[in-house]
């Protein structure tokens, strides 16, 4: 008698690794979308250390300067995962760096000089982990467990890390309110990434939840060439001149109506406008996603320029500007893409032009779904970290050259679904190794040194459900056992 696929596995299919699922009629597989295709999805159960109940948090990207390969760096509750996405419809999970101390729902990462810098909140002795990303070039048998290349411990917990790549300074924000900077930013010289050094901090204006720091080249000629810090400080936006770390100058602060929690913001490319998200105003006041635009034409006298309201009541989280677009991780509404070419206008300054919703259950006002987004790969691929569903790789519809990824179609599994066995065949090249993972990321079958163009995989002892089959440590296929 034919077995029925259990509900848990049927549901899991919607969160497991998909590849190149186009956005058709408003959906890419199970995910609502508009003009953005799904290239791949790797779940939390694969990315994270499986101890406890891991979730996803921050995300950033790195491009290898020697070969142009692109990598996703995903912060998890208990670890940081590294994924090769240079073939975006065939990503390779390379391994993870476990937490330096305890678990945290707020683990954040940034990149400078081919190194990742990682902090965690509410973990008293975590400090900052430093990881040399060039080590990812040499991973031959993924996944592996990495160790840090340096561990800076002159602070304990922190909510986020900000880096000015022009100057080689990291700004640790959301440090302990009882620490030396009372929650304000700590300054660290990371010009030598594996030998970070303390450069002081700023404690005069309360807790900095998030920030952006730039070498200023905007319209306010008085401050050109200075290092400018824009802090999202819970109930205000704070602008500091941090050029001289021993003599920080406060330029201005600005509030706005109906403050919930001043969370995070980003400059436009010309450094004229600053786009801000308030994390709890949707819950507190009942309106749809609200995004505020400030005119920073005069850094000493910023003004609120316009307000945008989205199409859903979802909470906005992290947002980043690239050219004439603003990419927001909008929690339960997923990634939202806004056109900001009209940003100087008092009304209709931004317009939604696309989205990819990683949380199809609802667009409600709650803390699930898309945590953050990284839109800065030269390839045009965009990575999203989802709290429950892990890593998503998406791309604007109609822009993927599928011929680049021909190798994905050269390996087949037949039959699939399978009962007693399935034949893995390669049209080009030799099958050297095979690993089979269950939905918890555990290896349930492996075979090395195969050196054949086809291999019969015995499946009789596998329980009913969904599995990932990794061939030659590069290609991943879904296999259903019925």
Largest sheet strand order: 2-3-29-28-27-26
Radius of gyration: 23 Å
- Overall structural domain count: 2
User: What is the 3D form?
Assistant: globular
CATH superfamily of the largest domain: YVTN repeat-like/Quinoprotein amine dehydrogenase
Tell me the CATH topology of the largest domain: Methylamine Dehydrogenase, Chain H
- How much of the polypeptide forms β-strand, as a percent range? 35-45%
Q: Return the structural class.
A: mainly beta
Helix content: under 10%
Unreliable spans are 1-16, 402-408
**Span between termini:** 10 Å
The CATH class of the largest domain: Mainly Beta
Total strand count, please?
39
Biggest sheet statistics: 6 strands, antiparallel
DSSP helix count?
3
Mean pLDDT across residues:
92
Written description of the protein model:
With 482 residues, the chain is mainly beta. The chain has two domains: 32-402, 7 Propeller (Methylamine Dehydrogenase, Chain H), CATH 2.130.10; 410-481, Immunoglobulin-like (Sandwich), CATH 2.60.40.3080. It contains three helices and 39 strands. The strands form nine sheets. Strands 2-3-29-28-27-26 form a six-stranded antiparallel β-sheet, with no helix packed on it. A five-stranded antiparallel β-sheet has the order 1-4-32-31-30. Strands 5-6-7-8-12 form a five-stranded mixed β-sheet. β35 (434-437) and β36 (443-447) form a beta hairpin. It is globular, with a radius of gyration of 23 Å. It comes from Mangrovimonas spongiae. It holds the Pfam family LVIVD. Keywords: Signal. This is Choice-of-anchor B family protein.
